[in-house]
């Protein structure tokens, strides 16, 4: 291996950034990782420590079809990597329903009158389906009837993505909702014939790995390994400018929490920072059209209210999907079900109430006291704890948790990608926010591994955009692979929305 005098600069210490740093330092290459968070590594896969308890930012199941990724995880944690059975349910109108949704179970628990309404609505949809099928609402209503759409699809989808279901493309429903058949459920109330024939739904896994002290334990271990291998990880450093000089050397300027400004040089930059922010920080500045495309990339934000309650918990579920329209919460995590070591006091329950929002909206801007009161009242509505049982709370706001796929994002992303490859061949973007792709952490890790391999080989052998949702590298021509990440609802183009409303 040739001598390397200047380090690679990695922006972001989430799963993607740390995986890239680990690969490069294992190869003997100098690396400097710059992370804006002053305390934690792991990005949105971090585990927050609050007094004696730990909680996740969104919950993370560790599973992958890639043996390379799973080997990496096991090498990092060994026996601290637990095997867990997936348990989660849907909450609607004070009842819990199986998840993945089984129409037979749903019809039984809804009761005879509501079940009759659902079946009647389904039959009407089969006789007079919506045409043309344009939106998510059209597709689901045609498949299940309008009543089941309202109960099990509408509320949660709109909570998570902040869009009316009439504005969401039908393509997402066709990709995402698999293995469900109401027609078969009417004949067989236990399990639909289609599910028996097709096996488990692809997007779900029955068992998964989980670090004993939460996902952050994985990334703490990875960060420690990077340091042992000679890499630097600098926390509390926010990147403000990335300048590439005429000789191809990068000068990355970053500001500390104390306001101190420094510049780190390197021959390569690997970035998992939000693509919108990275493009704005590049120097020499790129063309106005690409800058405009980057500025229009949009995100969905997220906050979690972690509540500690006396009396333990009756739940064995890792989380509950809340479809009830009477509350704002979207999901409730039960941290003891992830790992008992997350909540060492057996007399306490630890719940994470997840609110999907947009930075600056009415949920995001509420005070911590207001959020605690809201979460406590909604936890009581679900029947998990009385407000008087709440003994403590911790609130975390997470901006840019989910990239939004609107009707223009593909063209915007393709322009950005082409410009970066032409102007900055030694800059590689990886991970969820770095590529503006809604992906699992194994997908993000695979993009990082390939970016590190490109540096090791001294050429761009692997196009990281060709990593698919199974964290596999896809050979072949093409630009951005359609299956490059988890499915996300795409907003209908304005013309399609207008046609639907007329």
Annotate the secondary structure layout.
Layout: E1 8-11, H1 15-26, E2 31-35, E3 47-50, E4 53-56, H2 67-77, E5 81-85, E6 88-92, E7 95-98, H3 103-110, H4 112-127, H5 136-144, H6 146-161, H7 170-176, H8 182-187, H9 193-198, E8 207-211, H10 215-228, E9 232-235, E10 237-244, E11 250-256, E12 261-266, E13 268-271, H11 275-281, E14 282-283, H12 288-295, E15 299-310, E16 319-322, E17 331-334, H13 335-338, E18 348-357, H14 368-382, E19 390-403, H15 409-423, E20 427-429, H16 431-435, H17 441-457, H18 494-501
Helix pairs in contact: 1-10, 1-17, 3-4, 4-5, 5-6, 5-7, 11-12, 12-15
Task: Name some characteristics of this structure.
alpha/beta; 5-stranded parallel β-sheet; 20 strands; 502 residues; globular; 23% strand; 18 helices
């Amino acid at each position: 291996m040739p001598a390397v005098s200047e380090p690679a600069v990695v922006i972001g210490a989430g799963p993607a950034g740390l995986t890239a740093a680990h690969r490069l330092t294992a190869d003997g290459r100098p690396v400097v990782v710059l992370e804006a968070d002053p305390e934690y590594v792991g990005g949105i896969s971090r585990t927050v420590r609050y007094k004696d308890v730990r909680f996740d930012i969104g919950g993370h199941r560790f599973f992958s079809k890639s043996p390379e990724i799973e080997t990496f995880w096991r090498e990092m944690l060994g026996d601290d990597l637990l095997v867990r059975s997936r348990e989660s349910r849907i909450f609607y109108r004070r009842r819990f329903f199986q998840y993945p949704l089984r129409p037979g179970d749903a019809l039984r628990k809804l009761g005879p009158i509501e079940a009759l309404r659902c079946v009647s609505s389904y039959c009407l949809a089969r006789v007079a389906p919506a045409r043309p099928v344009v939106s998510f609402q059209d597709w689901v209503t045609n498949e299940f009837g309008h009543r089941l759409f309202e109960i099990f699809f509408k509320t949660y989808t709109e909570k998570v993505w902040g869009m009316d279901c009439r504005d969401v493309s039908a393509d997402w429903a066709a990709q995402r909702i698999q293995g469900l058949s109401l027609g078969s459920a009417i004949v067989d109330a236990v399990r639909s014939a289609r599910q028996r024939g097709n096996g488990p739904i692809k997007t779900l896994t029955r068992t998964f790995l989980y670090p004993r002290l939460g996902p952050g334990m994985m990334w703490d271990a990875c960060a420690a390994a990077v340091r042992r291998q000679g890499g630097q990880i600098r926390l509390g450093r926010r990147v403000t400018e990335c300048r590439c000089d005429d000789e191809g050397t990068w000068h990355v300027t970053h500001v500390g929490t104390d306001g101190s400004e420094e510049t780190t040089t390197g021959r390569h930059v690997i970035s998992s920072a939000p693509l919108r922010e990275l493009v704005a920080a590049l120097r020499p500045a790129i063309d106005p059209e690409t800058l405009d495309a980057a500025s229009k990339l949009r995100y969905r934000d997220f906050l979690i209210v972690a509540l500690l309650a006396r009396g333990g918990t009756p739940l064995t579920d890792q989380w509950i999907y809340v479809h009830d329209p009477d509350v704002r919460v979207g999901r409730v995590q039960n941290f003891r079900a992830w790992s008992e070591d997350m909540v060492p006091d057996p007399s306490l329950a630890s719940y994470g109430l997840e609110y999907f929002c947009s930075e600056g909206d009415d949920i995001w801007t509420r005070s911590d006291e207001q959020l605690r009161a809201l979460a406590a009242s909604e936890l009581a509505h679900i029947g998990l704890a009385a407000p008087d049982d709440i003994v403590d709370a911790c609130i975390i706001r997470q901006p840019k948790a989910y990239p939004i796929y609107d009707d223009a994002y593909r063209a915007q992303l393709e322009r950005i990608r082409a410009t970066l490859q032409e102007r900055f061949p030694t800059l590689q973007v990886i991970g969820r926010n770095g590529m503006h792709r809604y992906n699992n952490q194994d997908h993000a890790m695979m993009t990082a591994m390939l970016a590190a391999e490109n540096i090791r080989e001294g050429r761009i052998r692997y196009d990281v955009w060709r990593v698919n949702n199974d964290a596999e590298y896809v050979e072949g021509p093409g630009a951005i692979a359609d299956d490059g990440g988890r499915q996300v609802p795409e907003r209908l183009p304005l013309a399609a929305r207008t046609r639907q409303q007329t």
